Amino acid sequence: MPHAPPRPGPGTPLLEIETNTRQRLGEAQRTQWLGEVASPQESLRHIADKKQRADQSVSPKTRWPTVRPAVP
Question: What are residue 26's phi and psi, to 5 degrees?
C-alpha cells in the first residue's frame, strides 16, 4: 500500500526558505535598499506558485500552512 506524502510542517525546507525570504524582504524595505526588494518579491512569487502546484496534487488535509509576514 503506498504511503501518503508527508504533511508539510514548520521544518519543511520550502517554508524555511519562504520565512527567510520574507525576513530579507522586510530588512530591505526597512533599510530602504530599494534595489534589494525586487529579488525577494520575485522569489516569494515563485514559492507561492510552487506551493499552489503542490496543493493541487495533495488532499486538503496536507495543504501547506500559511506563513505570515514578520511584524517589525
Answer: -60, -40
- Residue 36 dihedral angles phi and psi, to the nearest 5°: -95, 0
Rg from Cα positions in the chain: 15
The helix or strand, by DSSP H or E, that contains position 19, with its residue range, turns out to be helix 13-30
The per-residue pLDDT for range 5-54, each reduced to its tens digit, is 555 555 578 889 999 999 999 999 999 887 888 899 999 999 999 888 87
What's the predicted TM-score (pTM) here? 0.59
Q: What share of the chain is helix, strand, coil (3-state, %, to 5)?
A: 60, 0, 40
- So where are the chain's domains? 13-56
